[in-house]
Amino acid sequence: MFYRRPGLPEEDEIVLCKVTQILPSSVFVELVEYGKQGMVHISEIAPGRIRNLREYVSPGREIVCKVLRLNRERGHIDLSLRRVNSTQRVEKLEDIKQEQKAETLVKNIATKLKRPVAELYAALAPKILREYPYIYLCFKDIVAGKADLEKSGVEQGLAQEFTTAILDKFKPPKIEVKGEIRLQTYSPEGVEKIKATLLTLEQISPLIKITYLGAGRYKLRLEDVDYKPAEKKLEQVQQVLEQFADKLSAAGFEREKTE
Asked: What is the Cα Rg of the chain in Å?
């Protein structure tokens, strides 16, 4: 990874480490994000008595640790493996995974522009890391319309190149809900009533698409970023269909099952 944090970590900080050396009573590691060396005492590897450290760690293995103590004058960093809970471990590994994804995007743009990756990263990262702990968090804010690389100091042409790529690669995955609407009416104004109802349904959200299947049957397709907002839109669909129904008209919606 190109990603590096300046200085030393803080006490209680969760950090990613790579095992570099295993001694009888301690493990030496490199703090991947800081490029510094740290030590995990055998008592901080796991609860209980440990007979062989190599049952828990191996050279080159990446582990998530917690910073216990710092000696800033000497640069000593004492760490703990056993005091990191599963939630902290998963969150740290996800941060690193997303940051690696961001760096892959930088590499792809460097290839496209025929520029050295390290040079391009250096033109981008320092400006972002003044405001964000990770580059990928800035990329996500760009997708959400909350950040602007050019305003952060990135050269205009480069900012536009990155923004286009970010919007493509970091856009949130969408969920899809499908179903069938049935509209039946014996009202003298039935055709107009159906047209008005379909128009009202489409006006609920631009994410709703309705297509005609035949004989009063219509296909509804809804794409959204998450099931929670999608369900709210479906509730509105149901309300419109309930308003359609009366003594001469009937309406229904059957949701398509997902595997």
From this structure: 28
Q: For residues 132 and 162, what is the distance between their CA atoms, to the nearest angstrom?
A: 17
Which of 158, 177, 170 lies closest to 224 in space, CA to CA?
177
Question: In the predicted model, is pLDDT for residue 106 greater than 60?
Answer: yes
Task: Report which residue type is found at 89.
Answer: R
- H or E element: which one contains 251? strand 249-255
Assign domain 87-169 one CATH number from 2.30.110.10, 1.10.10.10, 1.10.150.190, 1.20.970.10. 1.10.150.190
CATH architecture of 175-255: 2-Layer Sandwich (3.30)
Residue that is written with structure tokens 């981008």 in the block: 124
User: What's the angle, vertex CA 67, arms to CA 61 and CA 70, rounded to 5?
Assistant: 120
Q: Looking up tokens 């009416």, which residue turns up? A: 185
E strand or H helix at 227 = helix 227-244
What mean pLDDT comes out for the span 224-235? 86
42 has a pLDDT exceeding 60: yes
Give Cα 68 to chain centroid, integer Å: 29
What DSSP element (H or E) covers 129?
Answer: helix 117-129
Query: Do residues 30 and 162 lie in contact, with contact meaning Cβ atoms separated by under 8 Å?
Result: no
Closest C-alpha among 68, 62, 67 to residue 30: 62
| All residues at 6 or more sequence positions from 111 whose CB lies less than 8 Å from its CB, including other chains | none
